[in-house]
Structure formats: structure tokens, C-alpha cells
């Protein structure tokens, strides 16, 4: 029989092993990736959006998506209030008071766009156990493959923007989300929402160009005029127009949020009032994966634990042979 | 008491068809009916799942809580084989059976929840498996552990069919599986906490911490000891056997030390992160946090002295209180403390509850059938007649 001291020693050793296993993850988060130089994305400028929803309609058409509605009463029209597995892009409205002035926080209204942000370090990609959700190394587009997906919906729960959506009404439901019209790039086309936008409120291009344009706009003097490009800012053609300058918030949403995104938002209304989450500059994926790497890098810790456990089990199970039904 | 060996196991015997087993079987059939609708019409037809709460009780209760309930085998094996406390040997086999059933059905329960279940094997294919995903780690370790549990339990099956030679061979290599049976649950029970880290700010600060893996691992072990208290008392009552108070009393004492360590750690983490203030807000999360803590505190009260621990009622209730604490921690972290945005809400549907109840009923039903026919429980030296 073991003495009390032996037991305590064993307990301490065991507790030490468990504590060591848990201290390891304190090793810092894994480094965050940089944006690819060829990463593409969108710049959404709420001050230019007139709420026509041409982008919502075009998105449905090019992605071959059915009509969607918020309640059965609305079923005659395409009336989703949020993105769903069948609606990858919606325009939402901000309302306050008597709605007399566009882009005013008080007594005003404004539009915002909800679609995938194509994070530089996406939570959904980190979460996916089967690589059905992946990030293209060149374009940075967060892509989804239903043929690989097991439908665990970890991506749905993980996304800080609530973007990947699952189709609960189908026995073979899949995830639906914006993939920046990657199926159209072969034909030299680009994201349909930007292509049809009449004011350039949604602009397509390389993220570097979009960031530069966003910085230019927020630095403009309110009340003046400036030239706004439309369509694809990187590859053209030039479809720009001249218009008035609004009073921009001095913040480009997505430049740093959650490790950065490839879809950027600027506008006159504080972003949090439009429903965008206030995110830290680090990505949640870097924390989660840093922890996992700390615990499992090279399988050193699990193998050491396994070795220790097996050694102890061998030592302490010697008499098990006699155990059991036989006499 | 002897420290090692010579533990005799014997089938309890008795009828398999009783009002209790009939009732349990009915619950299982009800669950199967709901699952039929789920597989024909989709998850939306029977669940209240939505894109704000894509994980409901089929994940949280059937898998996260269900597998923690199944940590009895792991918890007792740690005592017997790692800390060399051989006197607890009689508790191992029944605990292993409960673990085996719990984990196997948690694994099956995953398939009910997966939206594209026919692709499930992708998680094990080198081209598809994504090693950075916490879910991948959980799936792999749980699958391996289910196999390890069957191997650990197989001597009972071999004994039943009189395969002494095969049994002897297997027992000689058992220490490897015991080692795996320690490491694999440590890996995936901690990862069931790590799953939440990537959710970031969506999980309330009372539960979102980089220490989630340790918090989930410690509570899983605690729930393992608690389920042994629970199961020993229920099995004794159900089969009219005597409660193994001489084993459960000292085990419960060790359990309380672990619980005290856990609670100290839990509060140290909350204070270090400056999150304890949230516990004093008038929010639903604060209320559920204190409910969780109250259950752990109640465990202390119920099992406070050796005298209290010699009373089977206290052992049973102490086990239940601790299980409730572990259950609440998991429900809180995954659902109550999970906030995907203002316009989303979730409460399980009747269909979801029926399936979850059916899975737990199947575990109990299988436990009854197997303990009546296979040598699992220690042989009673003065068998009660009934």
C-alpha cells in the first residue's frame, strides 16, 4: 500500500504536469499574416450609398440565389433583413429621429453594407476542421467548398461579423457567404456589387489601392467636391464622377480591426452605430492557434505526457493480471 | 483493505424487461422519430437553431456535457494507475462502462447535429484535415479515445465469453491503453474549452479566457468523480446493493481538494483579467455565473465532513451538485455567455430536448443491460435477494 507521502508526491507531480500543460499556451499568440500584395477587396463608402440595392439584386443574379424574405407575408419580394445562406449581400439602414438628413447621427439616416469582410486572418478558416473554408494565398478571398464541408457550423459561430450562414431549411444544407464573385474572374469580371453600383459607394480593387483611396477621402475637407472612381479602381475602366464631400469619420474600418480585413468601410456615422463590432487589432484566430501551437507543437507535450502516464500505468498495473473473473 | 488485484466482477443478473427499461426504450424511440424528421427535412424542422446560435443543446448537452459526464473512467484511472491508489480498483470497471457509453453516444450525437454528415470522414483525410482547427483536435482525440475505451473495457467482454487466453494477452499490453486513456481525454476535454477562444468578444468576459482549456479540463475531471458518486449511489439503490462508502468517502475528500484548487484558480483568473466586476452587474450572465459558483459551493457543504460523506444521501447529492456546476459552466460559456448580437435568441425546441433526453436514456438503458449480463460491478459477497 502506498504511503500518504507517496500519494502526495504523485499528486504534486500530476498537478505540476497539468499546470505545465496549461502554462505553455501563455506563450504568445502566433504572428498574424500580412495582406497579400495582390489581395482584392471592396471599399464601401456609406456617404455615397443611395440605398438603391442594385448590388443586392446583382449579387443574387450572378450567384444564382433564390429570393429570400424575412417573414412569409413578404414572400412576394426579395426582402431579407440580413445576410442568410441565400443572401450574401444586403444594404442596411441606420435611422434616427425624424430622418431629415442623410449621414447625420441625429435626426438622420445612413446606409451600410453587410457582406463578407474577407479578413486577413479569418476566424472561419481557423475554425474549419476540414479545410472547406480557405483563404486564397494570392487574392486573399475567403473561399468555401460545400463538397468538403461537414456542416459543423463552427465557422458560423466563430465569425465576429456573423457572416457565414447555414441553410437550416434543407436536409442537405450548406454554408452560404460572399466569395467576391471569384467565379467571374475567369471572364475578366469582378464583384457584381461593385460593378453595378451607380455611385461608386461599393468599389472593387486591390486592397492597397482601396486603402489609399479611403485615406484620401477621409482627409478631404467637408463641403468641397472631389472625384469618385466607380467599378474597379485598380483595372478600370475610368468611370469616375465629381461629387460633394461629406463629413467623414476619421477611421477606416477594417484597416486594423481583427488583424485587418479586405473589405473596408468609411462613412459619416460612427461604425459601431452601424452595427460593426469594435474589434481589437489582433485576430482571434492568432490567439486560438497560438494556444494550440503552444500545447501541440511537435506533439512534444502530448508525447511527454503519454510517456509519463504509460510509465506510471505500467508500474501501477502489474497486479492487474490477477484481477478479473478467474480464480 | 488490499491495495491491488483480486477484484471480482460479476453480472448483476435479473430481468432485462422491466418497467424502467421499457420506459427508457420508449424515450429512445421518441428521439428516433424526431431524428427521422431532422434527416428528411433538415435541422430547421425540429430545432430552434439559427445563424446567431448555430450550436444548441445537441452540441452543448449531448457532446460537451455528455463527454464530461463520461470522464469517470479517466478520473478513476488517474487515481488507480497514476497515483497508485489501488484500493479504488473496484470502481474502475463500472466507471469505464459509463465512459464508454457516454463517449460512444457523444460521437453518435455529433452526427445528428452535423449539417453535412455524409462528409464526416473528411476530418480524418490528410488532404482535408485542418490541424490548426480546435475542432479537428477534438474530433481526432474523441474518436481515438472511443476506440481506447472499448479496448480498456474489452476484458469484461472477453471474460463473459470465457476467452481467457485472449484476455490475458490483452491485459499484458493494457498499460499502453491506460496511458492513452489518460492523455486523450486531457487533450480533448481541454480543447472543448479552447473551442471558444476563437469566438473572441462574443463570449462574455466571465467565461472568455486563455485559461479555458485548464478550466474545462479540471471541471471534466471533477465531473468524472461526481458521476462516480452519482452512479454508485444509483446503481446501489437500483440493484439493492450496498453503497461503497468506504471508497466513496475518501474519494470525495480528494475530489474536494481538487475542487478547492479549481475554484481558487477560477477566481484568480477572473481577478487577474479584471473581469470579476461583471459578476456584480444585474445581468443574466451574472445570475448564471453565481448559480454556477453556488453549485460548486453546495458540493463543499454537502460533503463537508467525513461524517457527512458516510451518508449515501450526501454522497449522491454532492455528486449531483458538482455535476450541476460543471453543466452550468458549459451552458454558460457556450450559450448564456455567448452573444452573437442583439436580434438573435435561442431556447431549445421540444424536438431538441426529446433527442437529448433520448440519448441519455439510451446510455442508462445500455448500462442496465450490460451490468445485468456482463461482469462489470464488483461481486457482492452477501448478495441481496429480490
Structural features, described:
- The complex is a heterodimer of chains A (327) and B (386).
- In chain A, strand 7 (165-166) and strand 8 form a beta hairpin.
- Helix content of chain A is 26%, strand content 15%.
- Chain A has a single domain (40-280), classed as 2-Layer Sandwich (Alpha-Beta Plaits), CATH 3.30.70.20.
- The radius of gyration of chain A is 26 Å and the shape is globular.
- Chain A contains 8 helices and 12 strands.
- Chain A starts with a helix and ends in an 11-residue tail after the last helix.
- With 327 residues, chain A is of the alpha+beta class.
- By secondary structure, chain B is mainly α.
- Chain B has a single domain (19-373), classed as Up-down Bundle (Formate dehydrogenase/DMSO reductase fold), CATH 1.20.1630.10.
- In chain B, helix 1 (19-41) crosses helix 14.
- The longest helix of chain B has 28 residues, at 245-272.
- Classes of the chains: A alpha+beta (327), B mainly alpha (386).
- Chains A and B meet through helix 1, helix 3, helix 4, strand 7 and helix 7 of A and helix 1, helix 2, helix 4, helix 6 and helix 7 of B.
Task: Provide keyphrases for this structure.
heterodimer; A: 327 residues; alpha+beta; Alpha-Beta Plaits; 3-stranded mixed β-sheet; 8 helices; disordered C terminus; B: 386 residues; mainly alpha; Formate dehydrogenase/DMSO reductase fold; globular; disordered N terminus
